[in-house]
Design a protein that fits this description.
The chain is α+β, with helices and mostly antiparallel strands. The protein is built from seven helices and five strands; from the N terminus they run αβαβββαβαααα.
Length: 184
């Protein structure tokens, strides 16, 4: 088991030597993740970080894994458990200027360019990736809106509250206005 204090981790050497780190041999507390306002509890995090080269022979760090969390639903405020998969490739550049001027057409959907000093805090980097993979507005996959408004369940269903269709609160409003005008 490796020590979790890697404040002076040489990421460039890690890539050059094509090394691999994972949650099976390195444990972190991820305090910022645990303190995130949408996270009720971190159940477990499995991750792997591997160093290597991109197709353009640049230093590349691949980070991937899965985490299980108890999140707080923004719709109903109740807690739910979910698993989140994350994957990202970070192409290292030695300066901000080179990172900013990088040809983005070389990137895949899961890659980003980062300026990297000779040493980094690997726990902070990994935790940043975990935080970025969290949903911005966590919601149940199931329909929790109807749980909030049980007396309006049928109307919500008719408005399109199914998982595949978004709720359209003004759908049918024109018909309601016409009916009200005809009744007066």
């Amino acid at each position: 088991m490796l020590k979790a204090n890697l404040a002076t981790f040489d990421l460039w050497g890690f890539c050059k030597n094509k090394e691999v780190l994972s949650s099976s041999n390195l444990k972190f507390e991820f305090k910022r993740l645990q303190q995130d306002q949408s996270v009720s509890r971190v159940n477990w995090v499995n991750w792997q970080m591997s160093g290597g080269c991109s197709s353009y022979n640049e230093s590349l760090v691949n980070i991937c894994g899965t985490m299980s969390l108890n999140l707080i639903c923004t719709n109903c405020g109740s807690m739910y458990t979910t698993e989140i998969n994350f994957q990202r490739g970070l192409i290292l550049q030695p300066s901000e200027l080179l990172a900013e001027n990088y040809d983005e057409s070389k990137l895949t959907d899961f890659q980003d360019v980062v300026a990297c000093d000779s040493v980094v805090n690997i726990e902070c980097w990994l935790e940043d990736e975990l935080l970025l993979s969290l949903p911005m507005f966590p919601k149940h996959l199931a329909d929790c809106v109807s749980a909030l408004y049980p007396d309006k369940k049928e109307e919500l269903f008719l408005l399109g509250s199914s998982q595949n269709e978004s709720i359209k609160p003004f759908k049918g409003l024109d018909q309601l206005i016409k009916n009200n005008k005809s009744n007066t």
